[in-house]
Design brief:
This protein has 189 residues and is mainly beta. It is 10% helix and 53% strand. The N terminus is likely disordered.
């Protein structure tokens, strides 16, 4: 995949350097299609619309013995929004909504991890969207782990809800709330 923005791998490498010695770094497997960034929002308070961002990259650090040392950094190309309806995509990507031409990049970089037990954790970090950076919390759960062709992999799902008014958006409908769901399968580096 050719990502048009600076790689976030360097950001995560900083986390890896300060994490415990047994923490492992994982590259999110976007080339194999084993990851997704999806969104869901209300259309005029009537029905749910869903979409995915088809271009993104990132990596994470995870240490099962010290979950608080875990971290993630992810970059999303907002112009890659796909709601399975081209006219709607053009409208959402336009200046009235995402304004993706002027703000083609969204990022999330975690700052802290809190172990909730049983493969659950809460990541606190900074999300930058529409040129505005806000601290948010993301509830994360481990989906599974294993090896594929001899390489260790980990899978996680993260979810959060954003009030788009916090990022300067005002036209997403009556609630201006959007749900984000991120599924990642990481390849150990």
């Amino acid at each position: 995949m050719s990502f048009p923005y600076k790689s976030v791998v360097a950001i995560v490498a900083v986390f890896a350097a300060v994490s415990s010695a047994s923490a492992d770094e994982y590259l999110i497997d976007t080339n194999g299609g084993h990851a997704s960034v999806a969104t869901k929002f209300l259309h005029q308070g009537i029905s749910w619309l869903t979409a995915e961002f088809n271009v993104f990259e990132g990596s994470f650090v995870y240490d099962p013995d010290n979950v608080e040392a875990s971290s993630i950094a992810i970059s999303i190309d907002t112009t890659s929004l796909d709601s399975n309806q081209a006219t709607r995509d053009g409208h959402i990507l336009g200046v009235d909504y995402l304004d993706a031409e002027n703000f083609p990049l969204a990022t999330f970089v975690s700052k802290a991890a809190e172990d909730q037990g049983n493969g659950m954790l809460t990541l606190t970090g900074d999300i930058t969207l529409h040129g505005v950076t806000k601290e948010i919390a993301v509830e994360v759960s481990m989906v599974g782990e294993g090896e594929i062709r001899g390489t260790p992999r980990l899978g996680f799902e993260g979810a959060t809800t954003l009030d788009l008014r916090d990022f300067g958006y005002t036209k997403f409908g009556p609630t201006n709330m959007v749900h984000l769901l991120v599924n990642v399968e990481g390849i150990q580096q």
